[in-house]
Amino acid sequence: MYDFRQRLIHLHSCRELSRNALCKILNLDNELKSIYDYSINQWKVLLQLSPQTAESLFKHLHSYTPPQLLNYFQKKNIHIITIEDKDYPHLLKQIFDPPFVLYGMGRIEILLEERRLAVIGTRIPSKVGVATVTELIPPIAEKGWTIVSGLARGIDSLAHWNTINTSGHTIAVLGSGFNYIYPKENIGLFLKLSQNNLLLTEYPPHTPPKKWHFPARNRIISGLSQAVLVIEAKEKSGSLITADQALEQGRDVFAVPGSIFSKQSKGTNYLIQQGAKLITQAEDILLELND
């Protein structure tokens, strides 16, 4: 009745369904041919779900059809890319746990450009951190590199804005669906990116942000990119987790050194001790990227 792509999108768009549960379904039925045949109780037993979650999943699959769902996404100007699609990002597909479905808003063709650099860092940058982003990012964006970050306050937002201001391309990866912009102070940035750049998420539009979404989001930020640049990060921070993920994915990690008296520099200084490439100017990055 529906092809695999339609069935995958339909199933993936159920808010109650976790990635692990979807993996389990795919392991049992790799073509998803039986998903419309299961009863509420069968879903409950198959995935060890609560009665409420099993009922919600059943209702989701039987309340509307995949074509109706795709029509909804089209009306909302949301692009859908599944892991089976030819335009799924090649670099991202290589990681251990690539998203099955990506939801995009804005200029989806930006994904075709594989020269991508992730830029991450603290949400509370120092004046030096702000100046560092302003110094490093524009020359790289002007060279045609797409800047990837996470729409968070601080270094992420600065990376996006500095790229926009140089008419470069930037991708923001969200830890929520498009109906929930987080943080709310970045609604203006979200709207700006949706016009001439690109927003990406693995979460359906109606998914609110959850604490555990952000480490998962970070694997996409690094997975999309050839390398990751860390500008100011505390000793224990999400930025260091992203750097670790980048190394596991075989990506290069660059870090900007900072004062030994600055908490925001403890993480980046540590990365340099562990072998990250020390960065003091944009040319350092471009040289490493063979640009």
Summarize the SSE layout with pairings:
Layout: H1 4-12, H2 19-28, H3 40-47, H4 51-63, H5 66-75, E1 79-82, H6 90-93, E2 101-106, E3 116-121, H7 127-142, E4 146-149, H8 155-165, E5 170-173, H9 187-196, E6 198-201, H10 213-223, E7 227-231, H11 238-248, E8 252-255, H12 263-273, E9 277-278, H13 282-288
Parallel strand pairs: 3-4, 3-7, 4-5, 5-6, 7-8, 8-9
Antiparallel strand pairs: 1-2, 2-6
Helix pairs in contact: 1-5, 3-4, 7-8, 7-13, 10-11
Mean pLDDT: 95
Which series of helices and strands comes N to C?
HHHHHEHEEHEHEHEHEHEHEH
Rg of Cα set: 20 Å
Overall morphology: elongated
| CATH fold title of the largest domain | Rossmann fold
CATH architecture of the largest domain: 3-Layer(aba) Sandwich
Q: Ends: how far apart?
A: 49 Å
Oligomer: single chain
Name the beta content range.
5-15%
The strand line-up of the biggest sheet is 1-2-6-5-4-3-7-8-9
How many individual helices? 13
Structural class: alpha/beta
Unreliable spans are none
